[in-house]
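Working notes for the structural subgroup meeting. M.R. asked for a predicted model of this chain before we commit to crystallization trials. I am recording the input and output together here so anyone reviewing the notebook later can reproduce the run.

Input as submitted:
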Amino acid sequence: MKYSLYICAVLVMALSCASGQMVSSHTPTAIGSEVTPLASAAGIQVTGKPVVRVNGVALTDRDLVREMFALFPYAKLHNGFPKEQEPAIRSGALEMIIFEELVYQDAVRHKMTIAPQRLDKEETKFKRQFGTQAEYNQFLASEMDGSKAKLRQAMKRSLLIEALLNTEVDAKSAVSLSEARAYYNTHPKAFEHGENVFIQTISIIPPANANQETLKEARKRAENVLQQAKATKTYKEFGLLAEQQSDDDYHVSMGDHKAADSKKLPPEIVNAARAMKIDQVSDLIQLGSAYTIFRLNGHVMPGKVTFEEIKKELIPNLQKEKYEKLRVALGKRLRQNAKIEKL
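Returned structure, recorded in token form:
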């Protein structure tokens, strides 16, 4: 889990430099002058005022809002943050910019460096994000006070944060095959499963309180769809029919329920599935006033997933868990002697 350094993102971080201080290095979702419209779209007035000081370094409301958009990138589409979620998003964003500043300061304290050649490479990448030299120059003038040095400092800050996290978190979060196997062996219950069926459904559902005539029409329609379903030969053919004819919510995903726990399905469907072969289409099943047809794509009896079956999924999951524990531990260590003033 690396901090991306596509410098189209890194540059925007430097937008709100206050008294020469660089801003949060977390990758925002917009570049250049789009940041202000984003803040406006969220109904948040951005003034550049400090919201927190980390060991005397001020981070501003621009940093905070940018991080909020990084955490909730759909805010622009939704014309702002959901009111019920905004406090949590704001709190999470504030903690993130504090964490990043602490990481940056720790990198400086350890005298970590970034080679000039690496900075040159990142600057070149960033310039490619602009259509013309004039657009790039305009960005420098409006967001960096025309200073390439300021731009490079913003890049350097982000690269230092990434470098320290690579050393303290990424490199230490690797999980070997033997570690994954040990976890598998010591957590046997986690890999047990019940009976699962893999089905696609087509459901004909009459309106609530339908009269007898409407119920008869639903039955007739279901019988007609059943004939079409029986004629399908593949997952795709059945799925396309489900998209066209099914009234249940699964029609938007070709009727696919993926792995369905037999305990959560109607007994009529489970009993029918147990008597069917893979790729077979069921007969018409009545569930109350509704009718269901399903295609059986797979059937797994209760058992335990083998290590070979799960290792490709298990290793990255364990790495993510280990990464987060290391990141949290790093944050706690950096906070121990830090002076953090929320304004």
